[in-house]
């Protein structure tokens, strides 16, 4: 990771190398941390953050689910993200707001611990590689099931949830694949370790519903809006592993990954006849995030010229 200049911590910008916490920080031991992944892109009018308000709303919702009092309003947190981007050199960057139970108390009760907030930025290329939007990635259905909402609140973007994702990711990489696909405990498709998943069959676009145990992704919501605007027939519905294998097109969506094609699942080739619908969505996503599609300008928060 290439270091930047400043990280926002509890209301102050501090030098990158001074952004440190104690080894006995509560959230480090018990997984009590919620976060967001946001991106800022270069546009004709300078660096702009994509869908900042929606990300901050989800951040606050995660905090509410975990009974974390952040002590800042949505407006204050959005302003802090803009301030952090402005005080770092990268024109395009990934933004990570993080709230965690801080140093001071130990034990399973997090309500006795202060909540601290940090916001960092760094340069991060496409999470699944530059070829993910062209050639596509190879994926495998994981032996690990997506965590169940009866055990953990899946609609909160909590650090603890991502131990589940890490196990699936490591398994996929160890087997020679680029990414994993997780089924839920009922055996239907949920999502990737850090992405939502879409499939195309007979020119119909679909994605698993929230009830399948997914995190409602901001990029997922963006793709759904694109489908409406492009007059692509779209449904939220469950899919089996076999239905993934026989899809005409499959792609991942996520802030880190962007729109990433899946060219193979468990040795089954996807997209024999090309990926026309995925290609349309990739093109529109690139235009919207880089300020070249005026109808989506409301999604851009300009951070620096």
Explained architecture:
By secondary structure, this protein is α+β, with helices and mostly antiparallel strands. The chain has two domains: 6-122, 2-Layer Sandwich (D-amino Acid Aminotransferase, Chain A, domain 1); 130-289, D-amino Acid Aminotransferase, subunit A, domain 2 (D-amino Acid Aminotransferase, Chain A, domain 2). The chain is 25% helix and 29% strand. It is built from seven helices and 17 strands. The chain has helices spanning 26-30, 52-65, 74-86, 162-174, 218-229, 241-245, 276-289, and strands at residues 6-9, 12-15, 33-35, 38-43, 46-50, 93-101, 115-122, 137-141, 179-183, 189-191, 196-201, 204-207, 233-236, 249-254, 258-265, 268-269, 300-304. The strands form two sheets. Strands 8, 9, 10, 11, 12, 13, 14, 15 and 16 form a nine-stranded mixed beta sheet that branches. Strands 1, 2, 3, 4, 5, 6, 7 and 17 form an eight-stranded antiparallel beta sheet that branches. Strand 12 (204-207), helix 5 (218-229) and strand 13 (233-236) form a beta-alpha-beta unit. Helix 2 packs across helix 3. The mean pLDDT is 97.
Would you identify the CATH architecture of the largest domain?
Alpha-Beta Barrel
By helix and strand content, what is the structural category? alpha+beta
Distance between the termini: 25 Å
Number of helices: 7
Query: What summary fits the major beta sheet?
Result: 9 strands, mixed
Contiguous uncertain segments of 5+ residues: none
Query: N-to-C SSE series?
Result: EEHEEEHHEEEHEEEEHEHEEEHE
> Which fold name is given in CATH as the topology of the largest domain?
D-amino Acid Aminotransferase, Chain A, domain 2
């Amino acid at each position: 990771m290439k270091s930047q200049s400043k990280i926002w911590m509890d209301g102050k910008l501090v030098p990158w190398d001074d952004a440190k916490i104690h080894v006995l920080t509560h959230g480090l031991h018990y997984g009590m941390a919620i976060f967001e992944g946001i991106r800022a892109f270069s546009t004709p009018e300078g660096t702009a953050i994509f869908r900042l308000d929606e990300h901050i709303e989800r951040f606050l919702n995660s905090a509410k689910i975990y009974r974390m009092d952040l002590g800042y309003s949505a407006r204050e947190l959005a302003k802090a993200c803009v301030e952090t981007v402005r005080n770092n050199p990268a024109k395009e960057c990934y933004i990570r707001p993080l709230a965690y139970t801080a140093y001071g108390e130990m034990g399973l009760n997090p309500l006795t611990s202060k909540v601290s907030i940090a916001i960092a930025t760094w340069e991060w290329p496409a999470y699944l590689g530059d070829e993910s939007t062209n050639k596509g990635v190879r994926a495998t259905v994981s032996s690990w099931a997506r965590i169940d909402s009866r055990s953990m609140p899946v609609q909160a973007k909590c650090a603890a949830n991502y131990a589940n994702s890490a196990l699936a990711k490591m398994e996929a990489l160890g087997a020679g694949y680029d990414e994993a696909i997780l089924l839920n405990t009922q055996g239907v498709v949920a999502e990737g370790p850090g992405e939502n998943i879409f499939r195309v069959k007979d020119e119909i676009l679909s994605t698993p519903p929230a009830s399948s145990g997914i995190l409602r992704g901001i990029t997922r919501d963006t793709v759904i809006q694109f489908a409406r605007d492009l007059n692509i027939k779209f449904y939220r519905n469950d899919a089996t592993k076999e239905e993934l294998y026989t899809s005409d097109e499959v792609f991942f969506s996520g802030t880190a990954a962007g729109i990433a094609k899946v060219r193979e699942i468990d040795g089954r080739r996807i997209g024999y006849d090309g990926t026309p619908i995925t290609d349309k969505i990739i093109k529109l996503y690139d235009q919207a995030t880089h300020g070249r599609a005026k109808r989506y300008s409301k999604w851009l928060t300009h951070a620096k010229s």
